[in-house]
Design a protein that fits this description.
Distance between the termini: 24 Å
CATH class: Alpha Beta
CATH superfamily: Peptide deformylase
Helix content: 25-40%
Strand content: 15-25%
Strand order of the largest sheet: 1-2-3-6-7
Length: about 220
Amino acid sequence: MHSAMRQCIFRKTCNNSLKIAISMLDVVKYPHPVLRHESRPIRRVDKELREIVRTMFELMYNNSGVGLAGNQVGLPYRLVVMNMNPDARDSRDEIVLINPVILKKSGHEENEEGCLSLPGIYAPVERSANVTATAYDLQGVERKYKATGLLARAFQHECDHLDGVLFIDRTTARDEPELETQIIDLEREFNAARSDGAIPDDDAIAEEIARLEKLRT
């Protein structure tokens, strides 16, 4: 939630690796296909996953975000990191959600949202004011959350990501010329990077997503 496009985890040269190239993780930008991929539940928590989580937090902090979902770093897993006070970078405020499920929503409120995968774009989005959710932590313990305000919005925003839904899909401002122009600009940047060979074609990305799913789901 709200770089140069280092999409190395999708390069064909990585396909035979038995590990995830954690050091190469970076925030992918719209309209990268992985952002529309429905993520799969994680079935194993281990040292590598903990390293992935720490890297995701660092990426989130470095990009001034309060939340980051797995597919935003190219990983097709139901994994979210959040911190409502990112400036402090205090681990006591960090929330790790593995296989989160929103059980209940209530109330309505509209507020502005942004997204690290759509840099510079902000728009009002109507969300539920309160949510009840469950998720596993890094110790494999299932936890229950009752969230309001910004935390409730972050839960909904990040869980949308895991289902391949972006906040621009939920805003009535999508038809406004300024927002549409910003979205088109991101599409042009993506297509230019792909033309330069920095981003593989859709078939190669789909192949890598399937490989990553086999590793951990």
